[in-house]
Every structure is written in structure tokens, then in C-alpha cells.
Amino acid sequence: MLSWILALSCDDRPGIVAAVTGLLRDQGGNITEAQQFNDAHSDRFFMRVAFDIADGPAFRNAFTSLAESFTMDWHIRDADRPTRTLILVSKFDHCLVDLLYRTRMNELDIDIVGIISNHPRDAIRISNLHGAPFHHCPVTKETRADQEAAIRQIIDDSGAELIVLARYMQILSDGLARDLAGRCINIHHSFLPGFKGARPYHQAHRRGVKMIGATAHFVTPDLDEGPIIAQGVEAISHADTPDRLIAKGRSIEQRVLARAVKAYSEDRVFMNGQRTVVFD
Ligand SMILES: Nc1nc2c(c(=O)[nH]1)N[C@@H](CN(C=O)c1ccc(C(=O)N[C@@H](CCC(=O)O)C(=O)O)cc1)CN2
């Protein structure tokens, strides 16, 4: 028996859970974990089922007609296959090094299929990328379209399923952001919706806040407006300079991004309009 994940969403109505679990039973499946949520606000139903079954592809075929009858958005994935992940980074490499380490320690079930930076390899002061190909994709306002074409080619060639902006400080065009909808996660170094845009720690210092934070969100054409997946905060004091806030912020960004990538790679994250559903 192999382990599989079924993730689905559809307009809510009676009988969805019974239909799904009934088919799993009829197909010889054994549920090992299940979560569901009905959002009364959007009237959308969300469900994640982990199950063991002898023939996953056969179940996928059998599930297709049921999914059509409920007009579901759904997918079934081999639970033991790591999520192919491409990481984009600019000058600050603390989130990249953290993702590499957590992956090496099997905390994250991802396969890092490439690293893209708009800065050259020697600007990334990480000696060991654990075999992940490095791609230098410099960009200026004049070359943004060509640079994004190169990024699209690397996404296609690497078979990346998830794109992570791990402190990548370039704004993706509306077209690229739209084409990566639901599979591109950014770590923003503030507790959104506060302090959007560049230099949020300086904004925080200027405002005199007593907490700072970080936000992992899906990337959309609207800067820092995408559906939020995970957030974290930490108390600060009047004595913290902007540089001290930047230093304190690094560990918050690392843990919040890792939490979002882990949840995504385990099919626990669902887009729900401008919001998300995230199953623990
Ligand atoms: N389409 C989107 N692209 C990106 C998003 C997003 O939400 N939607 N998030 C950013 C990350 N980010 C904050 O988290 C951010 C990055 C860059 C800037 C910015 O003003 N960049 C300037 C250039 C800065 C430089 O060259 O150092 C620019 O691109 O003109 C603001 C916020 C990643 N992309």
C-alpha cells in the first residue's frame, strides 16, 4: 500500500464527505488523516485526506467522475514524492540557507531543483548548495522582460512545482505573477498589512512599534497583497535600532517561510479568494 494525498475544494453542499470517503472505501483505500472546513463566508468547502491504497492512479481515475459531479478543484499526489521547488534570492541569503539546511535535515519534504539570483554566485555567501543548480539572472528596468523569460524557462526546464521568493527583492510582472498564481510564495519582512514595500524595518522603527514580524504569502500582481499563509511576531524595544530589528527579523522570516513551505509541500494550504485555508 502506498500513501497518497487528496486535496479538494468546491462549493459546499451536503454529502461531499460521504461521497469521498465512500469511494475510498469502495476502492480499498484506508484513510490515515482527514481534515475539512466549510467557509460560511465564501460557501466553499475544503478537504484534505491522507490515505493508503494499492493503486493510486486507479483511484485518481475513479475519482474523476465524482469530482466533476461536485465541480471540484482537486489533485491527488504521491505523499512520498518531494515537491520540486525553485528558490529565488537577492542579496540577503538567510532564508535560502535555512531552507537548504531544513531540507538536508529532512524537515522539509522538498527537492530544491534550482536557485535563481539577480546577483552573481559569489554574492551568495553559501559554499554548499547541496547540488542545487545556481542561475545568475541579472535584471534592470530595461531587461526585466528578458530576465523573466529566462526565469520562466528555468521553471519549465526544472519542472518546478513551487517557486519561493526567499528575499528576492524584485517585483514580478503582473503576467508572471498571474502565471504563478497559487504556487509562488514570498516572505515579506513585516507583519502584513503593516509596512508594505521596501525597507519595512525602517518603517517599523520610524513608527515606534513594539512588535515586528514576518509574513509568508502567495504572490499576486498586487505587491504584498497576496493571500497570507503564515505569520510570526516578536517583541522589540525602544532601544532596538533598525539594524537590530533587521537582525531580530532574520529568525522570524526563516521560521515563518519554512512553516509556509512545509504546509504547502504537504498539501495543507488552499487558496480561498483573498484568504487561505491552512490545515495543521
Ligand atoms: N508581483 C509581486 N512581486 C513580488 C512581490 C509581490 O508581492 N508581488 N513581493 C516581493 C518581495 N518584496 C517584499 O516582500 C518586495 C520586493 C521588492 C520591492 C521593491 O520595491 N523592489 C524594487 C527594486 C529594489 C532593488 O532593486 O533592490 C523594484 O523592484 O523596483 C518591494 C517589495 C517580491 N516580488
From TrEMBL:
InterPro entries: ACT-like_dom_sf, ACT_dom, Formyl-FH4-Hydrolase_C, Formyl_transf_N, Formyl_transf_N_sf, PurU, PurU_ACT. It comes from Algimonas porphyrae. Keywords: Hydrolase, One-carbon metabolism, Purine biosynthesis. Coiled coil: none annotated. Transmembrane segments: none annotated. Pathway: Purine metabolism; IMP biosynthesis via de novo pathway; formate from 10-formyl-5,6,7,8-tetrahydrofolate: step 1/1. The lineage of its organism: Bacteria, Pseudomonadati, Pseudomonadota, Alphaproteobacteria, Maricaulales. Residues 5-81 form the ACT domain. The keyword Hydrolase applies. The active site is at residue 224. It comes from the Bacteria. It is an enzyme of class 3 (hydrolase). PANTHER family: FORMYLTETRAHYDROFOLATE DEFORMYLASE, FORMYLTETRAHYDROFOLATE DEFORMYLASE 2, MITOCHONDRIAL. It holds the Pfam family Formyl_trans_N. Catalyzes the hydrolysis of 10-formyltetrahydrofolate (formyl-FH4) to formate and tetrahydrofolate (FH4). Belongs to the PurU family. It catalyses: (6R)-10-formyltetrahydrofolate + H2O = (6S)-5,6,7,8-tetrahydrofolate + formate + H(+). Its EC number is 3.5.1.10. This is Formyltetrahydrofolate deformylase.
